[in-house]
Structures are given as structure tokens and as C-alpha cells.
Design goal:
The protein is mainly α and about 375 residues long. It folds into three domains: about 160 residues, no CATH class; about 100 residues, no CATH class; about 50 residues, no CATH class. It is built from twelve helices and two strands. The protein has a two-stranded antiparallel sheet with strand order 1-2. About 15% of the residues are buried.
């Protein structure tokens, strides 16, 4: 009996171990969530720490400096940004009754004309609505009761989630210090025969992910500052919060217009009732998107990133649908990995005989002589 090829056995064992590790992470994703978040933070901050190493400083020194800088940033956010957001939110809450009165005064004449034109249909709709509320009242009350009960039941879960949030920076600190050792340990698990190709492919994936994620984060922060400044200059209610949310949402393709432009237009109209103000809001978001497309993305992301926005959006939707929040976090790295490996597999396929086709040969009828290549 012929013994199986050792190279094939090594490949099977390696791939089996990789699949088992992924299955374990998926099965216990809630348990591993703080660790994964810490790993994400460490991965994002690794280039800054590496900069210190290149300038003859220890890695621990770089980690301490970066951690102190982040702590200072969080303190400044807590001292300056959060109170400003709270003040704008309080102002918005005070103005909501006035917005409701304005909306009612503008919509009541329209409803009156509709009711005068279609009295029977409106009466029928109101009757059905009342009956529907009566029929579903007890169901709604039961749902509210279950929700209230769930709040108290999940109190332990809330405390655990809070502890997980506290553990994230701790994990990030230690992972950032030992990230090179972790990389070497993972590489040591790969069979020696495949280490070179694995390093090459992982390096490509790393370049794609790092360029995209870090670049998108920088772009999102710049756009958040631009949107927030523009909306505050236009005196849009809660303009600071909407601008920051819209800028950060820009990391997900097309999401900034959904969570930023629509509420900004609605609040600008409710507050000022001026078309010129609406045009100003559109100009702020349009200018920010044009700046991103023509200047920020080419300069920051460069040509090394080939992740199409639609591919990114689909991966985030799929990751969130199947694996929840963890799936959304892993969506972009997985999408980048698939794209890198798919590109190489496609290159192998195009260089194969299956794609190019084997040469067609005709053998003389008498079986003598050389075959003739007809290709």
C-alpha cells in the first residue's frame, strides 16, 4: 500500500487546524469579543509603536507613550467634546415641542384637504386603526412586560459587558507589547514547506487591510471634523453630533449620507425654515464627499487598496447577518483576504492548461512518425 505524500498530510493538518480555530472563535465569539477588540486596537496602533522601534526605542517605551497619548485624548474628549454634545442635545430636546407644533400647523391643512376629498376612505382607515390597536393592545402590553423583565434579567449581562469593555484596553496593551512574538509563534505553527508562501500571502493581506482600515479611519476623522464644523456654522440643531456621526459612518460606504444628510436637512428646516440653509447643508456634505473622492482617498489610501465599496458593504452586511457584531468586525479583513487569494487563484487558473487549452495533436493513421501540433 502506497504511503500518502507527507506534504499532502502536512497541508491537511494545517488546514484542519485553521478551520478548527475559526470554528472555535465563531462558536465562542461572545467570550472572545474583548480579546478580538483588543487585537484590533493593537493591530491599528502597531505602526506607531514600530516607528519608535525604528528610532532605537524599546517597544515597551513606544506602547507606554501611545497609551498615554490615547488616555490624554480620551480625557480631552470627556472634558470638552462630551459637554458640548450634551449641551446641543439638551437644546434639541427643548426645541422638539416647537418642531412638533410647526409640523402640525403645516400638515393639518394638508390632512384637512385630503379628508375633505376622501371622507369615506379616511373614516374607514381610522376605524381599522382603532380596531387594530384594540386587538393588539394585550399583545403589546405583554411585549412591554417581557422587555421590562428582560432588563432586570439581563442586568448581569450588562455588568459583564461593562467588564468586557474595561478588559479591551488591557488586552490591547499586552497584545501590542507582544505582537511580534505572537506573529512568530503563529508562523512557527505553519509547516516549513509552506512558510514562505504563507508569509507572502499574509503580507499582501496585511497591506490591504492596514491601508484600508487605517486609511478609512483617518479619512473618517477628517470628514467628521469638516461635517461638524460646517453644520455648526449653519446653526443646525445638534450639528456637532450629526457631523461626528456622519464622518465616522463614512467608514461604511454610503452610510454618511443616510445617518448624516437626512437628519441634518430635517433639523435645519425645522429650526430655520430657509431653503438657503438646506442648500448649505447639502454643500457641506457634498463638499466633504468631493474632498474625499478627489483628494483624501487618493492621497491616504493610495493605489494599494483595491477593495471596492460595494464589496466592503456586502461583506459587512453578510458578517453582521451571520455572526453579529463580531462578524461585522471581521468583515473587512475576511473580504480583503478573499480578494487577495482569489486574485492569485485566478492567476494560477489563467496560466493553467485548463484555461489555455492543451495542444491538439493528430497522429498519422499508420501510427508512424511524429504527431502534428495543430494549435
Amino acid at each position: 500500500m502506497k504511503r500518502p505524500d507527507p506534504a499532502i498530510l502536512r497541508l491537511i493538518v494545517f488546514l484542519g487546524g485553521l478551520v478548527a480555530l475559526l470554528a472555535l472563535l465563531i462558536a465562542f465569539r461572545k467570550v472572545f469579543l474583548p480579546l478580538l477588540l483588543g487585537l484590533l486596537v493593537a493591530y491599528l496602533l502597531d505602526p506607531a509603536v514600530t516607528w519608535f522601534e525604528r528610532h532605537r526605542r524599546s517597544r515597551l517605551f513606544g506602547v507606554v507613550v501611545i497609551t498615554a497619548a490615547l488616555a490624554l485624548t480620551l480625557v480631552m474628549v470627556a472634558v470638552f467634546l462630551i459637554p458640548a454634545l450634551g449641551h446641543q442635545l439638551e437644546r434639541l430636546a427643548d426645541r422638539l415641542p416647537e418642531y412638533q407644533r410647526q409640523m402640525r400647523s403645516q400638515l393639518e391643512p394638508l390632512f384637512a384637504r385630503v379628508e375633505a376629498r376622501y371622507p369615506a376612505e379616511i373614516e374607514n382607515f381610522q376605524t381599522r386603526a382603532v380596531e387594530g390597536i384594540r386587538e393588539n393592545f394585550f399583545k403589546l402590553a405583554g411585549s412591554i412586560g417581557r422587555a421590562v423583565k428582560g432588563v432586570f434579567t439581563n442586568l448581569f449581562g450588562f455588568v459583564l459587558a461593562l467588564l468586557n469593555f474595561v478588559f479591551v484596553p488591557v488586552f490591547a496593551f499586552y497584545l501590542l507589547v507582544d505582537l511580534p512574538k505572537l506573529k512568530q509563534a503563529l508562523l512557527a505553527l505553519v509547516p516549513i514547506a509552506y512558510q514562505e508562501v504563507v508569509v507572502a500571502r499574509v503580507s499582501e493581506v496585511d497591506r490591504a487591510i492596514s491601508s484600508f482600515v487605517r486609511g478609512q479611519l483617518v479619512i473618517a476623522l477628517i470628514l467628521a471634523a469638516i461635517n461638524a464644523t460646517g453644520l455648526m456654522l449653519l446653526d443646525v440643531p445638534f450639528g456637532l453630533g450629526i457631523g461626528l456621526i456622519a464622518g465616522l459612518a463614512n467608514m461604511i460606504p454610503y452610510m454618511a449620507l443616510v445617518v448624516g444628510l437626512a437628519p441634518a436637512l430635517a433639523l435645519a428646516w425645522a429650526e430655520h425654515q430657509e431653503v438657503i440653509r438646506l442648500l448649505g447643508v447639502v454643500a457641506v456634505f457634498g463638499g466633504a464627499q468631493a474632498l474625499e473622492g478627489m483628494f483624501l482617498s487618493p492621497r491616504i489610501l493610495g493605489r494599494s487598496v483595491n477593495l471596492h465599496p460595494v464589496w466592503v458593504l456586502l461583506s459587512i452586511i453578510a458578517g453582521g447577518s451571520f455572526f453579529g457584531f463580531v462578524g461585522m468586525l471581521a468583515a473587512v479583513p475576511v473580504a480583503a483576504s478573499i480578494q487577495v487569494f482569489a486574485r492569485h487563484w485566478l492567476e494560477i487558473y489563467r496560466n493553467s492548461a485548463v484555461y489555455k487549452g492543451a495542444p491538439s495533436k493528430v497522429v498519422p493513421p499508420d501510427g508512424t512518425g511524429d504527431s502534428v501540433d495543430l494549435r
